[in-house]
Amino acid sequence: MPTLAHVDQLIAHISRIVNDYTDQGPLTLAETVQGDRMHLKVTAVAQIPEVLPRLVADALTQLRAALEHHPVRRSRAPS
Q: What DSSP designation does 2 have?
């Protein structure tokens, strides 16, 4: 049975991958000046690591499974 601790580990792993990706500067930007305005254009975006979508899907699936198998506590109405 999946646990929330396992999901937490997956999310921590995903966070490290995203942090490494963003540290590499995945966007290439170009500035152009037109009169009194400056325009910033994204000219390239680095491909995200292939493992990232799979890990996100796995984390969401494991989270759903953990929630589905978690016992529901029903509160009793006051007497």
A: -
The string over 18-36, giving b where at least 16 C-beta atoms fall within 10 Å of a residue's C-beta and e elsewhere, is eeeeeeeeeeeeeeeeeee
DSSP conformation class of 43: E
Q: Take residue 48 and report the two structure tokens written for it.
A: 């995200």
**Polymer length in residues for the chain:** 79
* Measured distance CA(77)–CA(63) in Å, rounded: 30
In whole angstroms, give the CA distance from residue 18 to residue 46. 12
- Give pTM, 2 decimals: 0.71
Render pLDDT for 9-36 as a digit per residue (tens, 0 to 9): 999 999 999 999 999 999 999 999 999 9
- Helix pair angle (4-23, 51-68), 10° resolution: 160
From the CB of residue 62, how many other CB atoms can be counted at a distance below 10 Å?
19
**Mean pLDDT, the chain, as a whole number?**
89
